[in-house]
Amino acid sequence: xxxxxxxxxxxxxxxxxxxxxxxxxxxxxxxxxxxxxxxxxxxxxxxxxxxxxxxxxxxxxxxxxxxxxxxxxxxxxxxxxxxxxxxxxxxxxxxxxxxxxxxxxxxxxxxxxxxxxxxxxxxxxxxxxxxxxxxxxxxxxxxxxxxxxxxxxxxxxxxxxxxxxxxxxxxxxxxxxxxxxxxxxxxxxxxxxxxxxx
Length: 198
Description:
The protein is built from 5 helices and 4 strands, in the order ααααββαββ. By secondary structure, it is an alpha+beta fold.
């Protein structure tokens, strides 16, 4: 202590060091909340940037999906026709009539099994004779008999399988008979047209 009182430069040096230490301690207590706040804000900014990048990616993906939907809008109408939301007897009968004209065959008979066109089906009976259609849709049973030359009947059956309206052909019978006017070939087709149940 005596040395401290005798030497002024030592006293000034120690006082400066103690003052700086005190100032440093007070500054650390004063700046600590500010520094923690700045670190927290930087972390939040990084999180917001990550969220913004994710949202921008979602926006881009939604725009891509909208473009794809717009490009395929015509095909969605075809899908609605292929498997409609109800049993459309008129569409299937018109398409079969068109095929008959195209393939030069005569329609001898066209019948539709018991089908509920509108409303709930209280007694959903499915034929156990045939394999069920995947997805358990509603079914409209059809039966069709046609007459014509064998190549024309064959062409009609191929076109029927590739028809825009989906038809599951369950059975096909071809009968040839000789009449006074020549050979007559008759095909009997039984099948089901699936539709989505409401």
